[in-house]
Amino acid sequence: MPDRDRSDTVRGHRRVNLRHQIREWLGESRADWNDARVSVTVRQVVLKLHSRCNLSCTYCYVYHSLDQGWMRQPVTMSDMTRMRVAERIAEHVELHRPSDLSVVLHGGEPLLAGHDAVAATLAVLKKSVPDGTRLRFGVQTNGILIDDRFLEIFHEFGVRVGVSLDGGAEANDRHRIYVSGRGSYDRMAAGLRRLARPEHRDIYSGILCTIDVRNDPVAVYEDLISFDPPAIDLLLPHGNWTTPPPRPPGAMSYADWLIAIFDAWYGAPVARTRIRLFESMMMRLLGGQSDTEAIGGDQPGIVVIETDGTYEQTDSLKTTADGAAATGMGVATDSLDDVMAWLDQPAEPAAECLACPVFTVCGGGLRAHRYRDGTFDHPSAYCADLYAVISHIRRRVTADLAVLR
Ligand code: SF4
User: pTM of the prediction?
Assistant: First the structure.
C-alpha cells in the first residue's frame, strides 16, 4: 500500500476509535450521573466550629440571606458537642469502612475558635476514626487570622487550607468588608501571602473567588494567580428564580466573564493553576466525574454540622428560604446514617434539562440556583450562562481533539 494510503487508513482508524471512545465516555457519564444520585455514606462533613465572622461580606449566605438561623447558634462548638461529633463520625466509619472521609472546618470564620479549639477538634477527630479510613482535613477561611501557630497546627494534622478572596483590592472590597464597611483586602492578602510561602505548599489548597461581573475577569484571574494558588474556585453568586442573581446594567454576562478567564487559562502555554469549575466541565465532557456541586448534578453525601450539633444540608440552600437547609436532627440524638436516610433524594431534573444537549455536563447546575417558589425542579437561574460556557469549552476541547485525528 502506498505511504499516503496507509497514513489515510491509520488516520481513519484513529478517527473511528476516537469517536467510539468519546461515545463510550458520554454513555458512561449518564450512568455515572444516575449512580451519583444514590449514596448512603457521608463523603464530607462540614463542621461549623464558630458561628460568627470577623467580616460581614455583602453576599454572605450565613448572615445576609433569607435564613437567619445563625442567630440561634452558640458562638462556638462546645467540648461536649465536639466529642459527640467525633463519636458520630467514628460510628459511621465503623459501619461503612470508607477509604476516606473529608472534614472541612467552616464557619462563620472557623479560625475565630482559636488555636486550642482548632487543635483539640482535629485531635479528637483523628483519634476517634479507626484505621483503614483516611480523614482528609480542610479549612475554609478568609485568611485574616492565619498565623504561624495555625500553620503549625495545619501541618501537624495535614489540614489543607482554602482562602476566600475575590481578586485585587478594588474587586475584593466591593463585597468582602468589615461591619464598619471598611475593606478587608490588605489583611486577607497578608494571610494569604503567609500561606503561599514554599514551605506551606503541601497544605495550600487554593483560593475561592465569588464572581462580580463588574470586575474585569482577566484582571481578577491575574490578581488571584499572583498568590500562586494550586487551584482556584470560581463561584457564581447565589441566586435563583425567586431571588434572581445580580445582573448589573451594562456589565458582562456571567458566560462572557467566565469564557474570558477560560480562554486565558486554557490558552496559556504552561499550566499556572487548576480551575475546578472548568476542569469539572471538561471532565464531564469526557465522561469523568465533576469535582464540584456546581456542575454535573447533585452530589449527595455532604452533611453540615452546626455549632450546636444540629445537622443541616448544604449551606447554599440557605439562600432559598428560611430553614431550607434544616433537618431537625442532631449529633445528640441521631447518627450520620439517620440523617443520610432522612435526606431526600435530589429533586428530579427539569424536563428542559433532560432534553438539553449539555445536560450530562451541566446536570442543571447548583441545586440552590434551581429554586423557584418552594420547588427545585427547574433549570438553573444561570441556565443561559452555563449553556454558553459549556458549549464554548466543548468547541475548544473538540478542536484540540481533532488535531489527534
Ligand atoms: S444548560 Fe440549562 S437546560 Fe441545560 S442542563 Fe443546564 S440548567 Fe438545564
Answer: 0.86
